[in-house]
Amino acid sequence: MASVTRRGFVGSLSALAAAASMPARQAGNVSLPERRAGHVSIKITDLKCAIIGQNPVVRVVTDQGISGYGEAEGVKNYLKPMVMFYKQYLLGEDPTDVQRVMLKIRRMGAFKPWGAAVSAIEIALWDIAGQAAGVPVYKLLGGKIRDRVRAYDGAVRFPMHGQTPADYAENTQKIKESKEGFTLIKQAVGFHNPAMIEAVPDGWYDSPGRPGPGHPDRGLLTERGMEQIIACAEAMKKVLGDEVGLALDCGPGWMLKDAIAFARAVEPLHLAWIEDTLTGDYSVYPNAQVFKELTEATSTPIHTGEEIYLRENFKDLIENQAVNVIGPDPEDVGGIAELKWIAEYADLHSILVAPHGVFDGLIGLAAHVHLAATLPQNYIAFEYPIAQPEWWSEIVEGLPDPIMKKGFIDVWDAPGLGVRFNVQKAKARLRDEDRDFFD
Ligand SMILES: [Mg+2]
User: How far is the CA of 236 from the centre of ligand 1 (A)?
Assistant: First the structure.
């Protein structure tokens, strides 16, 4: 606990100092004590984690009555012990010095799924910093450059009835007609869709199987397999026309020569991007050199990056212009400020950014909105998460209703992430082992 006495009064956050000169104010449900500029003291007193539904939720507790929340992907309900590992490094720290806290813990994370705990904590720290300063998180990330942010379909999905071009067309039509009014839709094909691999058994020379969790390993396409994927892409684009963009999540698992052939074949479709062909989701290396060969061989935009942890691991992809679009997930890359930094650096290299987020939950959605409001003009859209299970929409307050209008979300101005738990309703959803989460 030496760090507690060493810290004393800390007020390095300029926005915090500015807010401190104002009268006591409300931040969410929390009444803040009066603060004098430059004499603000706030310390982390606890770190908690609960699995709510399927999503790990992180709560950083402070001695000023403010709690910050972060979330990890709903597919990582095993994450709680990993989150709690960091508690020893957080206690006594000033949560509004986000960067200093992150320097203590960022080295002890890794590519997806092991960067998720660090990322959720980072988001919770920003939530506290915003509430303490009485400003929305986007102000602390540099301020917004847009009042509404674009998202693509992500978790808004409908059951596929088969794997033929007609099935893809029908399914895409349903997403196009959904009430959210998406202007960009992403669909899964090839190695990203195991059902397609099973439905076209002679589409792959070496049936890749599933050696472990995540996606199939790698494999070489047959001519029939290649034609099947191209036909499905054409059928979807016919449905969307030039009104709605189409992106394809394709892998990982393609061989370079197949990826080049496919990317060239779909050039007339003007796709928004093809994602994770070579490596990607749950790969533990970025493979910049081989991506560069693919990117230089086609005009179809090449995308990767949802599994990558920290800015350092985007360096080769960005500096070599190895891809056209990067898709880090704020809940895996190390948090929202980490993603902001990467997006700014990508922009210097004319690389676009479309953050991943399909399983990020509603707190994750709030983090995406604040982040996207501040990203430079290389921003395309983030991947839209929804309330899963549906009762999540009853336990979180502060989101717009409806959340999305015509494919965009209006940025809100409440302090911090601007979303709060309805504690009474949320408590009823806690698992037995997490009963004290809100205490
Ligand atoms: Mg993906």
Answer: 18
Give the model's pLDDT for residue 14.
42
For ligand 1, the distance from its centroid to the CA atom of residue 252, given in whole angstroms, is 9
Which of 3.30.390.30, 3.30.70.270, 3.30.390.10, 4.10.375.10 is the CATH number of 2-135? Answer: 3.30.390.10
- Report CA(307)–ligand 1 centroid distance (Å): 9
CB atoms within 10 A of CB 131: 32
Predicted confidence at residue 349, as pLDDT, reads 98
- Which single residue is written with the structure tokens 């039509």? 173
Q: Return the amino acid letter for 69.
A: Y
Residue 51 falls in which region: left (phi positive, over 0), alpha (psi -120 to 50) or beta: beta
- Separation of 251 CA from ligand 1 center, angstroms? 8
CATH class name, domain 148-416: alpha beta
433 Cα: distance to centroid of ligand 1 (angstroms): 32
4-56 pLDDT, tens digit per residue, is: 333 333 333 444 444 444 433 344 444 454 444 455 699 999 999 999 999 99
What percent of the chain is predicted at pLDDT more than 70? 88
Q: Three-state SS for 7?
A: helix
